[in-house]
Design goal:
about 550 residues; alpha/beta; nine-stranded mixed sheet; six-stranded parallel sheet; 19 helices; about 40% helix; binds adenosine-5'-diphosphate-glucose
Length: about 550
């Protein structure tokens, strides 16, 4: 089995750090039990890390209690990596997770600033929880390890770990989009977040669009950060540090999905689904119940299809599967009501004896059931208003082993541009375009469907999760400390090829100083020990 550490210069382990662990501990009257976490990040990382040793640090999904550690220990025994929890209080969960992460960063980064609740207390707790994650990680890491932090919940952890003296290299991957400067600058804490992100050695984005937005934000808000071209990825230089910024589109474990989808059990389950659903064409939507996924807009597009193309009535059925998500946040409660009202309105308007146009499933499906739906579907309808990547689009293609299905995908998902050669790409806000695309897909010849799906499956096979992990780990510049002069040796002679690189020869602070009026500018010199010293200050300064 592939071990990523053999493809890189990494000597130690990979320490994954994410808000959630792949399992969550659910308390109940008689004690507690372990369940699988949901969502795209866990799906991708679990698939990629199935055979890798290391450590996975995150929150176990519950408030502290005596059950957590023994249950995690037990869950670690069936995995090659150890699970370690960061314990969070009820107040922290409410203000860090539901608050800062999901009421501020999530809507803002998905270009929906009017949904943000910029509560200053959330920021305080976000900083505190990031320090907690940094502390637990600092305790677990050695200098030979590579610390890989995931997603928007943990953007401040690098500075917390640097302050705790961690010298191991650190990478950060953003699973969601990065907004342009006009949106990002609305964030009251924009500068400390950018500065802290630049304490990582590598920052990864889902698409070039996100990376370009990040650079545009730096140029507007942190002009002292210099962008330098690099091969294969550009770098940012700030205060003597360099950070590689790369695009790494996430993928799925294509071979595993395809193998599972081909199972005889899945085939018979899928035939049973088709037999029970009376329509000729099965359209499938699968999402976390989230306002970024465009579920109401999708339902309205489907309603428009039925109004505009009456011949489709009785012949096309939408199965919309939603997994409950973030139900404690008011916006999500409203969304559920909106979706359920639309489903009942459409069904009220169009249902005929023997045909119900929309089947709505509100629960987490097991892998087999999900695969059976993917296989049974004629059309995968993936229309988020904004999405970092969207793995459902890729899972649908991987499960199409008989190359029968058509993918309709939003241009605003990372998967849209990546899959455009085989998919029908739509603007999810254009209900008319989506209705037309559904009609096109429903009436497409078998040959066109096959040709399109072959192309799609090729892309998804090629850009799989293994490649995503490998390319991210390889992005860490090895050997020569970045920015130092001469030689090719490792900076300290340490066995770690990934030693933390601080560019002592480039006092970027001087650049900050030049932005000040002349009478405030301190003067610097670099000492023999390569440390920067202030040699003179303007009168009146401390
Ligand atoms: P998510 O927003 O969670 O992920 P997505 O990439 O679509 O979005 O992943 C959802 C995952 O949950 C898929 O693996 C899907 O199979 C599963 N799922 C959804 N509904 C389900 C149901 N009812 N039952 C069972 N499983 C269900 C975030 C970003 C994305 C990015 C991923 C990975 O928002 O843009 O693609 O991380 O980086």
């Amino acid at each position: 089995m592939t071990d990523f550490t053999t493809m890189t210069d990494l000597k130690g382990r990979v320490i994954n750090v994410s808000n959630r662990l792949p399992v969550l501990i659910r308390k109940h009257a008689g004690g507690a039990r372990v369940e699988r976490s949901s969502g795209g990040l866990v799906t991708a990382l679990e698939a990629g890390w199935r055979h890798q040793r290391g450590v996975w640090i995150g929150w176990a999904g519950t408030s502290p209690g005596q059950h957590v550690e023994p249950l995690l220990l037990k869950a670690s025994q069936t995995r090659p990596y150890t699970l370690r929890s960061v314990s969070l209080t009820e107040d922290e969960i409410a203000k860090f997770y539901s608050g800062f992460a999901n009421e501020i960063i999530w809507p803002l980064f998905h270009d929906m600033p009017s949904r943000c609740n910029f509560d200053p207390e959330y920021w305080e707790i976000y900083q505190r929880v990031n320090r907690k994650f940094g502390k637990v990680t600092a305790e677990a890491a050695t200098e030979d390890d590579f610390i890989w932090v995931h997603d928007y919940h943990l953007m401040l952890t690098a500075s917390a770990m640097r302050q705790a003296g961690v010298s191991a290299p650190m990478g950060f991957f953003l699973h969601i989009p990065f907004p342009g400067p006009d949106v990002f600058e609305k964030l009251p804490w924009k500068k400390p977040i950018l500065q802290s992100l630049l304490e990582f050695d590598v920052i990864g984005f889902q698409s070039d669009h996100d990376r370009t937005n990040f650079v545009a934000c730096l140029q507007r808000l942190l002009p002292e950060a210099a962008v330098e071209p690099g091969t294969p990825h550009p770098q940012i230089r700030l205060e003597g540090r360099r950070t590689v910024i790369g695009t790494f589109p996430i993928g799925i474990d294509f071979e595993e999905f395809t193998r599972q989808a081909a199972g005889t059990d899945i085939e018979s389950q899928s035939a049973e689904i088709r037999r029970r659903l009376s329509g000729d064409t099965l359209v499938l939507g699968v999402d976390r119940l989230d306002y970024t996924k465009g579920i109401p807009e999708r339902l309205k597009s489907f309603r428009l299809l039925l109004r505009r193309f009456p011949k489709q009535r009785g012949h096309i059925t939408l199965v919309q599967v939603v997994v409950p998500s973030r139900e404690e946040i008011p916006n999500y409660k409203h969304l559920r009501r909106e979706v359920e009202l639309l489903v009942s309105q459409i069904n009220g308007e169009f249902t005929e004896p023997g045909w119900v146009p929309v089947h709505y499933i509100h629960r987490n499906l097991g892998r087999d059931e999900l695969l059976a739906y993917y296989r049974a579907a004629d059309i995968g309808l993936v229309t988020p208003l904004k999405d970092g990547m969207n793995l459902v689009a890729k899972e649908f293609c991987a499960a199409q082993i008989d190359e029968r299905g058509v993918l309709i995908v939003s241009e605003f998902a990372g998967a849209g541009p990546e899959l455009r050669s085989g998919a029908i790409v739509v603007n999810p806000n254009d209900f008319s375009e989506v209705a037309q695309a559904l009609h096109h897909a429903a009436t497409m010849t078998a040959e066109e469907k096959r040709n399109r799906m072959r192309l799609l499956r090729e892309i998804v096979r090629e850009h799989n999760v293994q490649r995503w992990i490998r390319s991210f780990l390889q992005a860490m510049p090895a050997g020569e400390p970045v920015g130092s002069k001469g030689g090719g040796a490792n900076d300290s002679g340490s066995p770690s090829a990934f030693k933390h690189r601080r560019d002592e020869t480039m006092p970027g602070v001087a650049l900050v100083a030049t932005a000040l009026p002349p009478h405030f500018r301190p003067r610097y010199e670099i000492g023999k020990d390569a440390k920067l010293r202030v040699i003179a200050r303007a009168a009146g300064e401390d």
